[in-house]
Design goal:
By secondary structure, this protein is mainly alpha-helical. It has one domain: Peroxidase, domain 1 (Orthogonal Bundle), CATH 1.10.520. 51% of the residues lie in helices and 2% in strands. The chain is built from ten helices and two strands. Strands 1-2 form a two-stranded parallel ribbon. Helix 5 runs antiparallel to helix 9. The radius of gyration is 17 Å and the shape is globular.
């Protein structure tokens, strides 16, 4: 387990150029990580090793997942913290799957991706379809801890299953559902 997953967002922000704040970022590192075709390539990049150290990882078993996060986060251009990633890419309601940024079939492929390289491809596609703008903290958490419980949560959020939101169900103001 990665002890300091929140460090991934700070690492990502440090790499992003921000002329308004006079921060040059590290465009070269972002470009190298974007060109990595596999997680094995990303593991050899100095920027991924920097993320490894910042996250407080301690052993070689953590290197693939941190390198995956580095290679995916390099494609993110803008932080949109107002919504979770799965909600951002999901449909307005289960009855309208065509409204999803990431269509249900691609979402299923993301959920079924088992190898780090499959996840690399699926998450990069997700970012591209979202126009490079997603919740950086939520994305980093998912990349660094793609557990069964996190996947369940993503399915729940993607389909807007919470009846209290009023988006997926017919919840009333008191939280009761209509019959």
């Amino acid at each position: 387990m990665i002890p300091n997953r929140q460090a991934a967002v700070a690492w990502w922000r440090d790499l992003q150029p921000d002329p308004a704040r006079g921060r040059p970022g590290d465009r070269a590192a972002l470009a190298r990580l974007r060109r990595c075709a596999t997680v094995a390539e990303a593991m050899q990049d100095p920027a991924a090793i920097s993320l490894f150290r910042r996250c407080g990882a301690t052993g070689p078993q953590d290197l693939p997942v941190i390198s995956l996060a580095a290679a995916v986060l390099a494609h993110l251009r803008e932080d949109r913290p107002e919504q979770k990633v799965a909600q951002q890419i999901g449909p307005e309601s289960p009855e309208k799957p065509e409204t999803a940024l990431l269509k249900p079939l691609r979402f299923r492929r993301l959920m079924e991706a088992s190898s780090p390289d499959e996840r690399l491809t699926a998450f990069r596609r997700l970012i591209a379809l979202a126009g490079g703008a997603l919740n950086a903290a939520d994305l980093a958490e998912a990349l660094l801890d793609w557990s069964e419980s996190r996947q369940r949560r993503w399915v729940y959020d993607y389909w807007n299953a919470d009846p209290r939101t009023g988006r997926a169900g017919t919840a009333t103001a008191t939280g009761d559902t209509a019959a």
